[in-house]
Write a structure and sequence with these properties.
By secondary structure, the chain is mostly helical. The protein contains nine helices and three strands; from the N terminus they run αβααββαααααα. Strands 1-3-2 form a three-stranded antiparallel sheet.
Length: about 220
């Protein structure tokens, strides 16, 4: 029994290490592209070496970092290629998913997503891009796109999409979000939402593609 508990505890520590490594990246405690030693990470994260190694191996398979034997760990520095790849993945998966979402999504869910978008747009137009508004933008981004993906009821796709979202957060670390850009993105969301509420899968897929094209251009500095 003690061996089982020990193994379970090790697994939980590995999961914790995985989460903490990503959090340190997203909070810029580890700069994108940084090269650090394993001992540095042990001290920074407060996680023992064994579970830390497990987490690092998983993150290496996901492309977040590269482990250099006897040298250290190098974290990915997002560039144009990673940005393009991320949006290509999203476009391929979500175009299929949004057609299903448009036909099957719960009416109450769509109404809630629409209401929160309209409320946030009014808040930003009246008071600018506050910290609270930025948090709500991120929450709505996840709510809309995760709801679209969930409509496929495919755990393999959901798992891959969650991993891809880590790339997306890395890509977004250096983005400059302004009031006009935030409102533009929210209006693009509204086009998707309204097409889904109209139960029009083709229009929803077109609106989603237009949103991703515009978002990619914004990330690349092409407004």
């Amino acid at each position: 029994m003690s061996d089982v508990v020990e193994i379970a505890g090790h697994g939980r520590l590995s999961d914790l290490a995985y989460t903490r490594i990503l959090e340190t990246l997203f909070e810029r405690k580890i700069p994108a592209g940084a090269f650090v030693s394993q001992n540095d990470l042990v001290k920074l994260l407060g996680i023992p070496v064994a579970p830390l190694r497990d987490a690092l191996r998983i993150l290496e398979t996901e492309g977040v970092l590269t482990i250099h034997p006897r040298s250290g760990i190098q974290f990915v520095k997002p560039g144009l290629e990673l940005t393009r790849s991320t949006y290509q993945f999203r476009s391929i998966v979500e175009r299929a998913a949004v057609a299903v979402f448009a036909e099957t999504a719960d009416e109450d869910l769509m109404n809630e997503i629409e209401r929160r978008h309209l409320d946030l747009m009014r808040q930003i137009e009246a008071g600018g891009l506050t910290d609270a508004a930025k948090l709500e933008i991120e929450a709505l981004e996840q709510l809309l796109h995760n709801s679209i993906i969930a409509s496929l009821s495919n755990p393999l796709i959901e798992t891959s999409y969650k991993r891809m979202h880590n790339y997306l957060r890395l890509v977004r670390l250096d983005r400059k979000l302004t009031t006009p850009l935030a409102l533009r993105s929210l209006r693009e969301h509204m086009e998707i939402i309204l097409a889904c509420k109209a139960r029009d899968p083709e229009k929803a897929a077109a609106a989603l593609s237009a949103h991703f094209t515009a978002a990619l251009q914004r990330h690349m500095g092409m407004f």
